[in-house]
TrEMBL record, chains A, B:
Pathway annotation from the record: Metabolic intermediate biosynthesis; chorismate biosynthesis; chorismate from D-erythrose 4-phosphate and phosphoenolpyruvate: step 2/7
The keyword Lipid biosynthesis is annotated on this UniProt entry: no
Localization, UniProt: Cytoplasm
Cofactor binding description: Binds 1 divalent metal cation per subunit. Can use either Co(2+) or Zn(2+).
Keyword terms of this UniProt record: Amino-acid biosynthesis, Aromatic amino acid biosynthesis, Cobalt, Cytoplasm, Lyase, Metal-binding, NAD, Nucleotide-binding, Zinc
Amino-acid biosynthesis found in the keyword field: yes
Annotated positions binding NAD(+): 73-78, 107-111, 131-132, 144, 153
Pfam families named among the record's database cross-references: DHQ_synthase, DHQS_C
Stated name of the protein: 3-dehydroquinate synthase
Binding site for Zn(2+): E186, H251, H268
HAMAP family in the record: DHQ_synthase (MF_00110)
One annotated GO biological process: amino acid biosynthetic process
One cellular-component annotation, GO: cytoplasm
Length: 365, 365
């Protein structure tokens, strides 16, 4: 089973290859790209202990000189300091413009490796091998790279496209169940904003809360259609001038929740799940879609084992205030992505603060 | 006198406007671009004391909200830490994606402001107002932005295009004479690599070693033709895939000299001047151009008050070793730009080390 998705951009088009067991073929996939022989593989200790050797063996068998760089796990390390350390390793190993930085890991590793690749020697080759569901269907596609500022997530970064994204669904078997669910939040998002068929397929599944219950076929469909949805949107709007903003469905309030809970209690997918519930409710109240559709969405979120309520200790005023400092604020107005039906959304900056407040209170635990 | 040069790129084309007194019109120039109202002006204390008020007044008169950020003078401050400080100011003033970072200063300010603009919120608007001859004819055009790594110059950075480059030749009156000469090194470079007419015009001038002896007309010609040369080259090869490398004429050995003298004793333009003398001699020895042309080049370099000899205390072996760590090294081979006639160069990685050594010894003081 091999699905190949072409991400078509004005410059720097590339492919996403999705195939069970493909990690063992990593070297030959990269060989086809005609890049230089030096590769800096960036990972974290846990991922590296599971998949480092498989990746290294495949790369070395294909004749690459591979160096490794490890970053301790966690969003807390997604800093400019960690990037400076990648630079040091790049310098020590004489990486050249034709060399490649390869991210083996989840979104944090991918975002940082991408930013380091974007800014070392003003940009060297970058390959993504995502190992979490979240990074497979979201972070690894679309060229967003970067790190956090002490006062805000992802404020520092660059748009930089990989030369290849290689997805091996088999690596998801070692993913903690909570992280699998977090990835499902983004999958459900694609169903709501873009792909009503994907949404229906998810509704048809017996369970969505643990990869153990998913068939290899359904997993391939989920990955392929999610990546395709993201690739379509990014292909039409690489630099987030307009359409691409729809990918932020659930993220407006989601980011505020993450930020206020210190990026630790609630993970990104969980925050997006709650954000989708909030946005869905706002849309119902504005009569943009039906309550029936809102219920279908929330049912799917619950089926994936994701939260649908805001934690009680989170102050609504604090959420509203945090919305104002979000990157997506334009001329002081908070921008919301709201569904108009399953598979379709619209962008608006005309949601009254009172309505946001009302909804935040309603969906409290 | 207004010259407008269009820099045509696949994406993000922009204009270079060159006009005496144009700094007082800065606000209306930017107004035409339809950007957001917030501008972060980045400068250094010296430049700001001369031109800050003129720029601020013009921007405010055009209705912009202007914030300022100052970086202490000098290449030593061109670090990732300084960038982090620009980020802090950007955050404090709630810069948005539609906002602009404006560099008022020389190459160091331009490179850093450009890199901060490229990486804040994954890229906001960037405007260059270069105040040194070097930054007018070189650094401000072509989208190279970045900072130094403790172990190498400009190793960290991004290709990022400004929305506008505004050049007011009148600000050169306060430029120290040594820095004016450093800029002339790049002007002479354009004559050698691209524009034989410019070279002839420079040969026709009485003196080139001090701006006080240049007519307003000649200065306008020098700026316009130099910018045009760079814009032409960059327009054909934005990301340095091939042709753009010719802009590095004189820089291969030049960078090594700068690096070995700690970026302080010899400035960039002086190092490039010596690098051109070395490259010119190599070309003569390889019979790529004539000795007569080499002499014409060296005469012009001397007329601009620039050095033509390598300092005695600089070890030739150290220079050769340093060449190996340069960004321009490809698969371990040192790449040289060599003139084939006045106005034309070629790129080669086949200069024997022995020949480099021989030339380095010959042009020693």
């Amino acid at each position: 089973m091999l699905s190949v998705i072409a991400v078509k951009l004005p410059e720097n088009s590339y492919e996403i290859a999705i195939a069970p067991g493909s990690l063992t073929q990593l070297g030959s996939y990269i060989n086809k790209l005609n890049l230089g022989k030096k590769i800096l593989l960036v990972s974290n200790p846990d991922i590296f202990s599971h998949y480092g050797e498989i990746a290294l063996t495949s790369l070395k068998d294909s004749g690459f000189d591979v160096f490794t760089h490890s970053i301790p796990e966690g969003e807390v390390n997604k800093t400019l300091d960690s990037i400076a350390q990648i630079y040091d390793t790049a310098l020590e190993n004489y990486l050249e413009r034709s060399s490649t930085m390869l991210a083996l890991g989840g979104g944090v590793i991918g975002d940082m490796t991408g930013f380091a690749a974007a800014t070392w020697l003003r940009g060297i080759n970058f390959v993504q091998v995502p190992t979490s569901l979240l990074s497979m269907v979201d972070a690894s596609i679309g060229g967003k790279t970067g790190v956090n500022h002490p006062k805000g997530k992802n404020l520092i970064g660059a748009f930089y496209q990989p030369r290849l994204v290689l997805i091996d669904p088999q690596v998801l078997k070692t993913l903690p169940v909570r992280e699998f669910r977090a990835g499902m939040a983004e999958v459900i998002k694609y169903g709501v904003i873009w792909d009503g068929d994907l949404f229906a397929k998810l509704e048809g599944a017996d369970r969505l809360d643990d990869i153990a219950y998913l068939s290899e076929e359904l997993l391939q469909i989920i990955l392929t259609r999610s990546c395709q949805a993201k690739a379509n949107v990014v292909g039409k709007d690489e630099k987030e001038a307009g359409l691409r903003a729809i990918l932020n469905y659930g993220h407006t309030i989601g980011h505020a929740i993450e930020s206020l809970t210190g990026y630790s209690v609630i993970n990104h997918g969980e925050a997006v799940a709650i954000g989708m519930v909030a946005a869905g409710r706002i849309a119902t109240k504005l009569q943009m879609w039906t309550q029936e559709e809102e219920i279908r969405q929330n049912h799917l979120i619950q089926k994936a084992g994701l939260p649908t309520k805001i934690p009680t200790d989170l102050n609504s005023e604090a959420v509203i205030e945090t919305l104002q400092t979000d990157k997506k604020v334009k001329a002081g107005k908070v921008r919301f992505i709201l569904p108009t039906q399953i598979g379709k959304v619209t962008i608006t900056d005309r949601v009254p603060s009172d309505l946001i407040r009302e909804v935040l209170e309603e969906i409290r635990i």
